[in-house]
Amino acid sequence: xxxxxxxxxxxxxxxxxxxxxxxxxxxxxxxxxxxxxxxxxxxxxxxxxxxxxxxxxxxxxxxxxxxxxxxxxxxxxxxxxxxxxxxxxxxxxxxxxxxxxxxxxxxxxxxxxxxxxxxxxxxxxxxxxxxxxxxxxxxxxxxxxxxxxxxxxxxxxxxxxxxxxxxxxxxxxxxxx
Length: 177
Description:
Layout: H1 2-42, H2 45-61, H3 69-82, E1 86-94, H4 108-111, E2 112-123, H5 125-137, E3 142-150, E4 160-171
Antiparallel strand pairs: 1-2, 2-4, 3-4
């Protein structure tokens, strides 16, 4: 009888210990699975980083350098010339700061700073569309914010005119450490 009481007491005490051991065993198995998964994917890590470096270099090459205002404006005049259009004006302006909750600001404004170009051009509708298409595929990362096209008087020999407002991205200035 004493033996059976001792066995029951040992079993009760041991049962709490078994739950703790089972929880520790599950945690260890989860950790091992995580390590195995990391080992399996770590073989491609170097290639993934190399691809990211290539993408970053492409993005960096497409960023506007606001301090090179003359070459930025010359780019748009040259593009207009290539598209057989007259560029009336190109203005480079700082974009207004993003409004609202800082947590909800678009990611591109976290890593990049927007810069605005206000462009006026004259040409045929096809030339204006070619100008926009070339700009989309060419040098800078741009977004057309506003496009206004006015029909010209064909009998008077006037072409369509367009006013275009673009937002381009430039790198944020380096912060002093």
